[in-house]
Amino acid sequence: MIDPNTLLTELNPAQQEAVRWDGQNLLILAGAGSGKTRTLTYRIAFGVCTGQVEPYQVMAVTFSNRAAHELRHRIEQLLYSGPTSLGPSIAEPFLGITFHALGLRILRAAVRAEHPRIPLKDRFTIYDDDDQKSLLKRILTERKMSHDASDLRSYAGAISWEKSAGRSPADCAKQAVPPRLTDFHEVYGQYNQALRQSNAVDFGDLLCLPVDLLREDVELRLRYQRRFPWLLVDEFQDTNTIQMALVRLLTGPETRLSVVGDDDQSIYRWRGAQIQNILGFPENFDATHVIKLEQNYRSSGHILGAANAIIARNEGRHPKELWTAAGDGSKVAVRAYEDDRQEARTVVQRLTDLLHTDADNTPWDAHAPVAVFYRTHAQSLLLEEALRLANIPYRVYGGMRFYDRKEIKDVLAYARIIENPDDNEAFLRIVNFPARGIGKVSVEKLIQRAQTDRVSLLEAATAMAVSGGDRVAKKLIPFVQLLGELRHSLHGMPAGLGIEEIIEQSGLKDAFARDKSIENVSRLENIAALVNAAHDFAREASDPTLASFLEGIVLRSQTDDLEAGQAHVALMTLHNAKGLEFDHVFMVGVEENLLPHVNSRDPDEIEEERRLLYVGMTRARKTLDICYARRRQRYGTYSSSFPSYFLEDLPDEHVERSTGQWNRPSMRRQKQPAGGHWADDYISETTYEADPQPEGSMVGRSVSHATFGMGRIRRVVGSPGPNSVVVVDFSDGVQRKIIARFLQPQG
């Protein structure tokens, strides 16, 4: 038998307290790099070794398959390996399981038992995203409603969102939905009905159906509660409404519930995560004991000091402050660049120098010790180009290389067929995108015609359009005319203008603009980045034509895929960086409208953007560079950009600033404390008064808001200024948090 005390010797005092605590409800606030997985696994092992619980009585739930596998592996290493093991390993399916896998097990068991409340038969199917969209396409067709690709994405995304919130079609009938989602609650209901007719579920059902089942069947609920007296949940800050409901249903009067998470790393609101689940845990579960893990084993002291200062400005959080015993290390570098191209080139040069002069003489290795983070996928383009020019291998994580992305290939397919009318693959890609009613059967007819006449698909389409007559020919006429007009107008045109013309005339711009989903915002940003790249090429190349631009892309894209384990620089968005760590981290584009993102307007969204910056900073082990540019290009035109006002909160004792010849503008004009480096001559373009007043003079001011009307400022959250958050008492009797720049002073 393992001596439990040997487990405790490997833990710090806070971790030991979390492992040994024997009460009912436990909230472990595990800061970044504080050893949360170790604490969670040791808590389970300690409970087993001290006889408090058997392994088969423990349910440990997490989010990803990778995290579940790691949890199981670590527990097996502790309990079943070495001379003090408990014996042969016993596979415990609930000891390290994802939420969706847990829901599936509950469903399968209910179906096998022929439970009357589950409308499924044995061997039911789980529909993936493609199946979901295919089903929705059939439903919208039956209802004689439009259903291009963006419509299908919108309906599918809305259904997934409603299921994550635990809302049924009947619930949705009582609430407002976006105008584009015509008859949404009816489509949602018909979709669910069609799933059941196919003996199928989607991913949302894997949680919704078990929650409904456990709510309605009290005996079954009690059975699960008795079977698993220990319930542990990892990454609790990422739970959504339906996951929280499942946790509540599995928690009985005698359940020992332990949740581990970090509210400061809650960055998935856009996919349904509810930070209030972790913030309100002590109020929702009686006699909760809270333990904070604040000792960090990853980052240097200066990095932690800077990150602590950033996140401390958030109001919606459990206070905590990370520290390390490993020393201060290098200060955080904050660097300004003239424009986004200089930013990319200099970052690549700096990371090259860093790798060659690492203080530990660490060579490039397979673990990608260097990473570059950005807010949006579109920002990777200039970095990819700079890395290719420097002959440095890289990998884009959580996304495709820029020129492999669908929307980019769609635009370039138009350019390809304009330059080469015989390009059949390009033709097939664009013949019905945007949708023109040219379906699979029509395309098959066209292919047969081309094969019979031994001509290209475009030639066959032209011949059919000229001959007229059948329905296919009539649909081809506008498409053939479009390509002819583009070929004529783009002749001799520089690449940048040519790409812009294609996007405008082809209907691609309108097709992408119609879809307001988060994913489509990213696609529009990528298209804007492509336009920028084409304009840059036209300015710098000896041959600025579209044909030359296409050739350059093909040559750049032929970089061989990295072999497994080959050293590389990691490129990724800040969202994809969560859970990872690197020796050296560069964060680019830390500017207004990027971080915080232009679409983040309300106070809760701004706080999530600040958490996103914090997550990026706390990925760094040795060095951290935060970068921003004076100008950034969009659709071929440079416009001024300004450093994120988040950076004003970085304390001088942890930061080394390098601004070149450019004074950074401040988002507030008030004088900074001694030692501050922010210029005070910038007047923000805002509806708030030009000279923000001290907090005392802001409080009590009458203001108006475009949506909520008249009100009075009750208090200021954080430093006063146009970008601070204020609490306003509005005339309708409701108190709301509002960003000051969205208020108009009155009187």
State which percent range the strand residues make up.
Answer: 5-15%
CATH topology of the largest domain: Rossmann fold
Distance between the termini: 76 Å
Which residues sit in consecutive blocks of at least 5 with pLDDT less than 50?
Answer: 361-368, 557-565, 661-696
Portion of residues within helices:
40-55%
CATH architecture of the largest domain: 3-Layer(aba) Sandwich
**What is the CATH top level name of the largest domain?**
Alpha Beta
Mean pLDDT score, rounded? 83
Count of separate DSSP helical elements: 29
Look at the helices and sheets and give the structural class: alpha/beta
How many beta-strand segments? 21
Global Rg:
29 Å
CATH superfamily caption of the largest domain: P-loop containing nucleotide triphosphate hydrolases
The major β-sheet equals:
8 strands, mixed
What is the count of distinct domains?
A: 4
How would the global form be characterised? globular
